[in-house]
Amino acid sequence: MKLLTLNFLTCAIKTCKSAPSSFPLHPRDASLEVIETDLNLPFLKNILPRLMWDELRVITSELGLPDLPPTPPTREDLVVAAEDAAVEGEESEEEASQTAKDLHRVLLETTVKEGKLVCGNCGHEYKVLEGVPNFLLPGHLV
Amino acid sequence: MSRPEDILPPDLFYNDSESRKYTTSSRIQRIQSDMTHRALSLLDLHSPSLILDVGCGSGLSGEILSNTADDGTPGGPHVWIGFDISSSMLGVALEKEVEGDLFLADAGQGVPFRPGTFDAAISISAIQWLCNAETSEDSPLGRLSRFFGGLYASLRRGGRAVCQFYPKNDEQKKMVSQAAIKAGFGAGLLEDDEGTKNAKTYLVLTVGGGDLDGDITGVVRGMDGVDVMARPGVARGAKRGQEAKGSKGWILKKKEQMERKGKVVKASSKYTGRKRRVQF
Ligand SMILES: C[S@@+](CC[C@H](N)C(=O)[O-])C[C@H]1O[C@@H](n2cnc3c(N)ncnc32)[C@H](O)[C@@H]1O
Ligand SMILES: [Zn+2]
Fold first, then answer.
1. Ligand 1 pocket mutation pick from B14, B24, B31 by most atoms within 8 angstroms of CB
2. Strand partners, B105
3. Which residue of A7, B150, B214, B237 pairs with B110 in a disulfide if CB–CB is 3.0 to 4.6 A?
């Protein structure tokens, strides 16, 4: 499971819906795997404003990954400024900046392979096996 | 032909052998692919989006979502997250090394994402299963309501969902559509090949607000055979503009206002599908 997904996933238990501490879920005993994939610049630009940056930083630090900057990049930061490349009226390909590459590596290539995800509110543990978290709940918690 | 929903619960019906049989059948591959493309055309996406696939199975739709626009996926490649109640189906998806994230979950228990997560959602041949409650403590209406309620919240304003499903009869078609409307969606039903044995039912759902045309009549404008069930704001008492302070809706709206106040953002350039490798 990508760290991107972890920035959107919440505890599934009904009584946690309104509790702020039920997001983000905290990885425990997690083993990580980097799975390379093509960088998708328009996607990164699309998703950037929807990220919860502080929570992403919490997760990367809990996983022992390098610190992320305290403030999120802007959409402009994701693109290499290329004055010479841009010819008016011509469809020019934008080039991904190092910031975009780093963000891509963290969000889309860094995955939780095994371990569990723990709710900060109710303590419920969601097991992750082969990168697949189990969100099936016993009936009384629905 | 008997309906699998009437025989067994989905996680038991889609066991290892059935999941493999399902996924390797070229007939099924073709039908699911056609329906995924139909759903994509209804979603009307123009750039790479974050998409939820409900009852994603072995990832037949997901593989299409991951394709580039040049390979026939409008707005692609998209990033998708799929969930399914059958671990066997997900196992087959893992073997195929699909690009999307997968998780094991029951749509009848809700959709565990924070508000406004997805640009769009797709569900192919899955939600009729919600009409069969597996336990005595649960009802089809309860499951449908948790599913559509969760789906509605997880979509961003202006987002859309398309659910192709196989209603058992008109009553079930109505029960599913009404549950979606009750959750706040604008809803329309699209029927392909109506009255034939190949009939396909698409529930087209819109979340009001945002800059997309959230009005269902806009989505299905000019299409034949579309039955508009409700329009956002008409079917619903509380409008999205009147969210209670601190509620999910309120926070979403605030965020959107903040984004609007921020820098003017250039529209994304068309993704050309050129391959890039990250250098480290
Ligand atoms: C006919 S298959 C379709 C799979 C995939 N969408 C496709 O088009 O190939 C139906 C799928 O719905 C899943 N399903 C049934 N009930 C479900 C539920 N309550 N929650 C999640 N998935 C469910 C089944 O496990 C199965 O994988
Ligand atoms: Zn919880």
1. B14
2. none
3. B150
B90 and B132 fall within a common domain: yes
Distance from first CA to last CA of chain B, Å, rounded?
A: 56
Instruction: Please report which helix (H) or strand (E) contains residue B143, including its range.
Output: helix B140-154
pTM of the model: 0.86
Q: What is the pLDDT of residues B45-67, one digit of tens each?
A: 999 999 999 999 999 999 999 99
pLDDT tens figures, B118-139: 999 999 999 999 998 756 778 9
How many domains does the structure of chain B reveal? 2
Identify the domain containing residue B252 by its residue range: 243-280
Chain A touched by B257 (CB under 8 Å): no
B160 CB contacts (<8 Å, ≥6 apart)? B42, B43, B44, B120, B121, B204, B205, B206, B207, B212, B219
Q: Does the pLDDT at position B35 exceed 50? A: yes
* Nearest ligand atom owner, CA of B87: 1
Q: Is A37 in CB contact (< 8 Å) with chain B?
A: yes
Q: Is residue B238 part of a domain?
A: no
Q: Is the Cβ–Cβ distance between B22 and B57 less than 8 Å?
A: yes
| Beta-bridge mates of residue B206 | B160, B186
- Which CATH number do you get for residue B110? 3.40.50.150
Q: Could you tell me the CA-to-CA distances from B91 to A24, A28, A110 in Å, in that order?
A: 26, 23, 21
| Residues B250, B226 within the same domain | no
For chains A and B, count residue pairs whose Cβ atoms are closer than 8 Å. Answer: 125
Report which ligand 1 atom has the smallest distance to the Cα of B60. Answer: 9
Q: Output the CA torsion sign for B188, B192, B195, B197.
A: negative
The ipTM of this complex is 0.95
Q: Tell me which architecture the domain covering A3-135 has in CATH.
A: Single Sheet (2.20)
CB of B272 within 8 Å of a chain A CB? The answer is yes
